[in-house]
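Protocol step 4 of 5: obtain the predicted structure for the target chain.
Materials: sequence only (see below). No template structures provided, no constraints applied. The aim of this step is simply to have a reference model before the mutagenesis design in step 5. Sequence pasted as it appears in the construct record:
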Amino acid sequence: MASTYSLMGRPPVVAVHNGRARLLVRREVEQDLMRRDVGL
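Step 4 output (structure tokens):
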């Protein structure tokens, strides 16, 4: 389980099959983290 308490984005998730890579989940960027911030 990933946490963003230190404002570190989650890494991408890539599947590899028969030598071909497929992006399953893109990496989080700073804008993704700020969008979820409640701003208390």
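Step 4 remarks: The radius of gyration is 13 Å. The chain has a mean pLDDT of 86.
Proceed to step 5.
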